[in-house]
Design a protein that fits this description.
By secondary structure, the chain is of the alpha/beta class. The protein has one domain: Formyl transferase, N-terminal domain (Rossmann fold). The chain has 6 helices and 9 strands; from the N terminus they run βαβαβαβαβαββαββ. Strands 3-2-1-4-5-6-7 form a 7-stranded mixed sheet, with helices on both faces. It starts with a strand and ends with a strand. The structure holds 5-O-phosphono-beta-D-ribofuranosylamine (GRF).
Length: about 240
């Protein structure tokens, strides 16, 4: 019987959300979850140093830029999946990861990959919506509030079932940078809450030998958008 849920955190930048997860793990806030590795899609980023400083395996798998975009996504995703097999990863957390996953990893880890997005999805999501662009779009649209979303990852960008959201008001005086900073604070709470929720559900299934299939998202989804779905997959 397996109790520990091995977590892989995927990153592309500063890694403050990774740090929130590392801190939470050190304080026992991730339950049976253990961050066993951090993988980046680029080198030289501070997130990898944070992992290294915390004695978490830190590695980079960079996209093969000679491949066309669809193949490039698939190729990178397949290398990440291979690593997941090697390290017996139970949960994949995208914490500021800018590459888009595709192919087998989406199917095999359906319901076990979560992403953090800095807006109240389904608003202001999709390909190319990241960082300052998101916050500027929120300001341009005159939104009264924004926030962040933790959601399950499916085959499209930012469309999977929503696990939880945290909201902040948009102030008249806000710049994109000021709004981003306020949301970042909420992200650090949301990513820990979302990860802990998923760990609890996956660990419970590990502990239930009769369970052949698991709908990881059932019971966790607080806000399902039209068209979103939960996929039943064997946990293996
Ligand atoms: C966060 O705003 C997250 O929502 C987005 O990328 C940013 C990552 O920040 N996907 P950090 O690298 O964790 O500091």
């Amino acid at each position: 019987m397996q109790n520990t849920v091995n977590i892989l955190v995927l990153v592309s930048g500063n890694g403050s959300n990774l740090q929130a997860l590392i801190n939470a793990g050190q304080h026992g806030e991730l339950g049976a979850g253990r961050i066993v590795a951090t993988m980046a899609d680029r080198t030289g980023i501070y997130a990898l140093e944070r992992a290294w400083l915390a004695n978490v395996q830190a590695l980079a798998e960079t996209p093969n830029m000679t491949l066309p975009i669809a193949q490039r996504r698939q190729d990178l995703s397949d290398r990440i999946l291979q690593f997941c097999h090697e390290r017996d990863i139970g949960l994949i957390v995208l914490a500021g990861f800018l590459s888009i996953l595709a192919g087998d990893i989406i199917r095999e880890y359906a319901g076990r990959i979560i992403n953090l997005h800095p807006s109240l999805l389904p608003k202001f999501g999709g390909v190319g919506m990241y960082g300052t662009r998101v916050h500027q779009a929120v300001l341009d649209a005159g939104e009264p509030e924004s926030g962040c979303t933790v959601h399950l990852v499916d085959a499209d960008a930012d469309t999977g079932p929503i696990l939880l959201q945290r909201r902040v008001p948009v102030l008249v005086s806000d710049t994109a940078a000021a709004l981003a900073e306020r949301i970042h604070h909420e992200e650090h709470i949301a990513i820990v809450e979302g990860t802990a929720l998923m760990v609890a559900r996956i660990a419970a299934r590990y502990a239930s030998p009769q369970t052949k299939h698991v709908s990881v998202c059932s019971g966790l989804v607080t806000s399902l958008e039209a068209g979103s779905r939960c996929v039943k997959r064997p946990l293996g």
